[in-house]
Amino acid sequence: MGARMFHGGGGWGAMIHGDDARPHVTWALLRRVLAYARPYYRHIALLLLVILLSAVLSLITPLIFRDLIDHTLPAGDVARLNLLALGLVLIPILNGAIGIFQRKLNATIGEGVIYDLRVGLYAHLQRMSFSFFTNTKTGELMSRLNNDVIGAQQAISNTMIDIVTNLIQTAATLAVMLTLEWRLTLVAVVVLPVFILVAQRLGGRLRSIAREGMEYNAQMNAMMNETLNIGGALLIKLFGRRATEIERFRVRAADVRDVGIRRAVVGSQFFVMLALIGAVGTALVYWVGGHLVLQQLFTIGTIVAFSAYLMQLYGSLQGLTNAPVAFATSMVSFERVFEVIDLPLEIAEKPDAIALGEVRGELVFDHVTFAYHVDERGLLADVKRYGMESVGAALSGGKGNGHPAHAGPERPEAETPVPTSQAREIALEDVSFHIRPGQLVALVGPSGAGKTTVTYLIPRLYDPTEGRILLDGHDLRDLTLDSLARQIGMVTQETHLFHDTIRTNLIYARLDATQAELEAACKAANIHDFVMGLSDGYDTIVGERGYRLSGGEKQRIAIARVILKDPRILVLDEATSHLDSQSEGLIQDALKTVMAGRTSFVIAHRLSTILAADLILVVDRGRIVEQGAHHDLLERGGLYAQLYETQFSREAEAR
Question: What is the pTM of this model?
Answer without folding.
Answer: 0.72
